[in-house]
């Protein structure tokens, strides 16, 4: 095996282990929010879970440090709170690009509840921000959200397969392209997204409009310390 194949195998192993833990803790979170067992059982589970923490934090990363799952250039985000298999907070949403559109699918359990039986509006905003980000990134230039507005048209049901779609709209027509010495065109992109159930994809429950920019070199330096933020 070449050294590169060795590294690929190691990375795949790491990602599989990370996804395994993510799924197990996600299941624990779901169990914690649906559980109606007696208080003594809740307390004994709490104590058992607390005992597990030090075995994970024995080797830890800090803010700005890359996890082993996301080597430079991979563009991966295994702990992303929406799509990351390693993040128990993430449903996770599975995203595919279909004809230039980003299409996400997921089922949200009771951990994401807002109105009883339905998804919290902030969670809908989180999913749409992500999917708009994918629609923008599909153009080859991943960016950052500078504005996001939502219209909640109908309640989004929990425990129901959902479909989240994002695509790019027209850019600001009147805005001059004042390309500066950092080489960006400083034209925010407009992205549009919707959430519906998988069964009724044409019935829009939430609609989002967002603007994205590609940070220029100075901004990347200021915010991310110069590292290519999207890779
Ligand atoms: C991020 C991860 C990427 C991972 C990629 C992986 C690959 C997979 C692909 C895809 C999936 C990705 C999915 C991610 C989805 C999640 C996205 C998020 O949640 S992003 C976090 C929330 N957003 C922020 O935190 C921005 C916070 N805002 C700022 O930091 C500043 O406002 C900033 C840097 C954007 C501009 O600040 P100044 O001080 O440099 O510039 P000023 O003076 O304020 O701007 C003047 C005008 O010029 C525009 N402008 C500034 N910079 C621009 C630029 N680079 N391009 C175009 N216009 C720009 C501004 O919008 C403003 O316009 P006006 O007055 O509002 O109309």
TrEMBL record:
Entry keyword Protein biosynthesis: no
GO MF annotation list: hydrolase activity
Bias type Basic and acidic residues, positions: 172-188
Domain of life: Bacteria
CDD domains: PaaI_thioesterase
InterPro entries: HotDog_dom_sf, THEM4/THEM5_acyl-CoA_thioest, Thioestr_dom
Reaction catalysed by this enzyme: octanoyl-CoA + H2O = octanoate + CoA + H(+); (5Z,8Z,11Z,14Z)-eicosatetraenoyl-CoA + H2O = (5Z,8Z,11Z,14Z)-eicosatetraenoate + CoA + H(+); (9Z)-octadecenoyl-CoA + H2O = (9Z)-octadecenoate + CoA + H(+); dodecanoyl-CoA + H2O = dodecanoate + CoA + H(+)
Chief site of localization: membrane
One Pfam family cited in the UniProt record for this chain: 4HBT
Topology of the protein relative to the lipid bilayer: Peripheral membrane protein
Localization terms from the record: Cell projection, Ruffle membrane; Cytoplasm; Membrane
Residues making up the signal peptide according to the UniProt record: none
E.C. designation(s): 3.1.2.2
Record bears the keyword Cell membrane: yes
Record key words, sorted: Apoptosis, Cell membrane, Cell projection, Cytoplasm, Fatty acid metabolism, Hydrolase, Lipid metabolism, Membrane, Transit peptide
Any GO BP annotation: fatty acid metabolic process
Region: Disordered, residue numbers: 166-202
GO cellular component labels: cytoplasm; membrane
Residues annotated as domain Thioesterase: 117-168
Family per record: Belongs to the THEM4/THEM5 thioesterase family.
PANTHER family per UniProt: ACYL-COENZYME A THIOESTERASE THEM4 (PTHR12418)
Protein name: Acyl-coenzyme A thioesterase THEM4
Species of origin: Tamaricihabitans halophyticus
């Amino acid at each position: 095996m070449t050294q590169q194949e060795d590294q690929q195998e190691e990375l795949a192993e790491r990602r599989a282990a990370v996804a395994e833990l993510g799924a197990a803790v996600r299941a624990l979170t779901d169990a914690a929010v649906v559980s109606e067992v007696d208080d003594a059982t809740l307390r004994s589970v709490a104590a058992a879970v607390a005992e597990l923490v030090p075995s994970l934090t024995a080797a830890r990363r800090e803010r700005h440090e890359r996890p082993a799952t996301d080597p430079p250039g991979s563009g991966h985000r295994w702990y992303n709170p929406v799509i990351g298999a390693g993040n128990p907070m993430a449903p996770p949403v599975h995203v595919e690009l279909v004809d230039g559109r980003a299409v996400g699918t997921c089922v949200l359990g009771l951990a994401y509840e807002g109105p009883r039986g339905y998804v919290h509006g902030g969670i809908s905003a989180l999913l749409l921000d992500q999917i708009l980000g994918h629609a923008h990134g599909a153009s080859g230039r991943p960016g950052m959200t500078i504005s996001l507005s939502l219209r909640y048209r109908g309640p989004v049901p929990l425990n129901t397969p959902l479909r989240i779609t994002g695509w790019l709209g027209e850019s600001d027509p009147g805005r001059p392209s004042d390309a500066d010495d950092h080489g960006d065109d400083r034209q925010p992109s407009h992205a549009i997204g919707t959430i519906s159930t998988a069964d009724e994809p044409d019935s829009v429950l939430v609609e989002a409009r967002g603007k994205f920019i590609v940070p220029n070199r100075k901004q990347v330096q200021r915010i991310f310390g110069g590292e290519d933020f999207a890779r």
